[in-house]
Each structure stands twice: as structure tokens, then as C-alpha cells.
Amino acid sequence: MTTTDTTQGKLRGARIAGLLVIIGGLALIVVGVAIWIAVSIQLRAENIVVPDDAMAFQGQVVAGPFTAFVQADIIQHHALTASGGLTYAELEQDDPVRATMMNASFLRASLFTSVVSFGVAAFAVGVGVISILLGWGLRSVAKSRAALGA
Length: 150
What we know:
Elements (H helix, E strand, L loop, with lengths): L2 H43 L19 H18 L14 H51 L3
């Protein structure tokens, strides 16, 4: 096997690796978009409307990361108002407001899980785009090296 054959084999391997990275990037983008849509559909199906006293997005249906975050924030505000500023752990065990605080905590956790899911979906799309660019660059370098006869 000559040096040229070895070099051509490496360049072919680089082109294949670049293609695989591009395919992986496309898969990450598809999965990220699918997760974003699925979480958004599930949130929208709950018909949660951001109340008028929220810091933003008043009157909008919770369907994305920002509306979910704002809704979680206003739930905390309302719960603390109901409890006189005390958290669930600070309330006496027999305090009837404790159930309200517990429900508020569960709702907030669910909404924050949605926010994190949107973040993971966006991260997957971002990594997918970077992968496509990396794969394209790898293939371009291998192609130009092959054209130079390296």
C-alpha cells in the first residue's frame, strides 16, 4: 500500500465521519423540535392562562418556556400571599393553608420541568446545528485535500 493510498483512505474516512456527524446533527434537530412541540402541546392542552397580576404575558395561554416560568412565579407569589409569606415547611402541620402551599409547590415543579424540557430541546437543536457545521467542515477539508492530491 502506498502513501497515496493511505492518505486517500484517511480522506475517505474523514468524509464518511463528516457525513455521520451531519446525520447525527439532523437527528438532534428533529428530536429537539419534536420535544419542543410535544411539551408545548401538553402545556397548551391544560388551558392555563397567565393572570393579570403576573409580571408579563398577562392573558396568554401557557405554551412555552417564558409563559411557564411566569406562571410558576405568580403561583409562588399567590401561595406566599395566602400563607402570610411562610413556605410549606414553615407552616404548622395542622395549618389548612399548608395544602395550598403543597399544591402550589407541585404546580411550580411541573411548570419548571416544562421550562427545563424546553431548554433541553433548544440545547439539542443547538448541538445539532453545530454538528452539521462540524460535519460539513470536515467533509470540505477532506474534499479540498483530495483535490490537492494530498
